[in-house]
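S.,

Sequence below, as promised.
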Amino acid sequence: MTFFILLAAVLAGTSLPVAAQRCGWLENPTPANWSLIDREGEWLIGVQGGYQAPGSDEMPDMSTRGWVTTNSGSHGYGCACMTVTTDRSDHRITRIVSARPVPLRQCRADPHLPKP
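The prediction came back faster than expected:
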């Protein structure tokens, strides 16, 4: 079945989104508002009452490898690596394939990332 979908996309001259790993600051400042900030800028994951990237509801607990609480409850930021597809034109994550928390030191040590 996958072969036929790929063949149809090639014959139609379209390309399928390619998943890539992105690592950076995962921010969740308030309920349902999520973004990932990596070397290429900020990528929208979700907005309260609006867009939510498919797969975001399947993310594991991202606070297991260090999480900084900056707002009420557990809202804040951490460091994460995510395999995602994106829409580069509006810096939106269009699907989360996988996500994993990584130690805060990984993002802090990356000179290409802004401070959270």
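The chain is about 15% helix and 40% strand.

Coffee later?
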